[in-house]
Specification:
alpha+beta; two-stranded antiparallel ribbon; 12 strands; disordered C terminus
Length: 347
């Protein structure tokens, strides 16, 4: 139950921040905001402030913003402050503000982690093992944190980069590690698996020791921005590799992400905040993809309108977004089923 509640809060925060971005941009650019809702479904209560209704809905997952001039069946489409009557660049700014807020949330969370917990800098001048990841070849072979790897298949290694290079060159091939532990020399055999993030390269699941530094406020913000960029680049690289069929498609649905939240929660608040930051950045980027029903697709349509000098038929555009929405819902159902199946297989 705790994992479920935390998962709902994390998802809700990310979606709410996204919608808040649309809200702030619309208000700043003079577009009439009819409603800002927290949650979905039937309305629990609503408070009106000037022209905007602020409501709380039954399902506490995110929220939505309703702008004037977006629903021909309900709105006054001739309202000069309606979204539909704004210049193309102004409408694009309002749409882009949602994903932008997701990136800003990621920067804020990563900055908080850097400021409160410090920045871990890998120590790569030695071959001392700082951490061993459970379930990977190194752990299965008996390698332990604190061990010093002095040779790989008889080749002496004195720096972490040398060690990594030899392991990456040997996916699927047994390697004999000469290890120094508590003054004694032992021999361990590991078989590197293929690194899913770097196809064709070996990986055994070890990490170097780290040095923890605590930056000031500005340093933490800089570190948060860099981490957001790094997470985004990794996501783009993985997406490209999946499209090219270089790595296996591994998409997590709500259940799978819930499991990740549970694991992060067990490892502490910093890990949970890191996961939330990574999810926020990924959702921001995902929304910018040119997929119907997402912000990226709407930006594409607005770009076409700007080039043509006239909008695409609203009925055709709405139909395309509707089809995209239905296909995404079907994908979520399929991925959720696979996530549940994995839970069942895991006992």
């Amino acid at each position: 139950m705790q994992t479920f509640v935390i998962s709902v809060l994390v998802f809700g925060l990310i979606i709410l921040v996204h919608e808040f971005g649309h809200f702030l941009a619309a208000r700043a650019l003079g577009v009439k905001v009819l409603e800002f809702a927290v949650g979905f479904g039937p309305q629990l209560f609503s408070v009106r402030r000037k022209e905007t209704a602020y409501s709380l809905r039954v399902v506490p997952l995110g929220g939505f913003v309703r702008l004037a001039g977006t629903n021909p069946e309900e709105d006054d489409m001739d309202d000069p402050r309606g979204f539909n009557n704004q210049p193309v660049l102004r409408r694009m700014a309002i749409i882009f503000a949602g994903p932008l807020m997701n990136f800003m949330l990621a920067v804020a969370l990563f900055s908080y982690i850097a400021f409160s917990y410090g920045i871990a800098t890998p120590i790569t001048s030695t071959t001392v093992v700082g951490d061993v990841i459970p379930g990977y070849p190194a752990a299965e072979a008996g390698l332990q944190a604190g061990d010093t790897i002095v040779r790989v298949d008889g080749v002496e290694v004195t720096a972490w980069d040398d060690l990594v290079r030899l392991i990456q060159q040997s996916p699927g091939r047994p390697l004999v590690l000469t290890v120094l532990r508590d003054g004694e020399t032992i021999m361990l055999t590991v078989v590197p698996v293929e690194n899913q993030q770097q196809p064709g390269k070996g990986f055994i699941g070890i990490a170097p020791p780290v040095n923890i530094s605590r930056p000031g406020f500005l340093g933490a913000v800089e570190a948060g921005a860099r981490r957001t960029v790094d997470v985004t680049v990794v996501w783009i690289r993985s997406l490209v590799l999946m499209v090219l069929n270089r790595i296996e498609a591994d998409i997590a649905g709500p259940v799978g992400i819930g499991r990740l939240v549970g694991q992060a929660l067990e490892m502490g608040l910093a890990n949970l905040l890191y996961l939330a930051g990574a999810l926020s950045a990924n959702i921001g980027l995902f929304n910018l993809l040119p997929i119907p029903a997402l912000d990226g697709s709407r930006l594409v349509f607005l770009g076409i309108e700007g080039v043509r000098g006239r909008p695409i038929d609203p009925e055709k555009e709405n139909f395309i977004h509707f089809v995209g929405f239905v296909l995404m819902m079907l994908l979520i159902v399929v991925v959720t089923y696979q996530d549940i199946a994995k839970l069942d297989l895991g006992g």
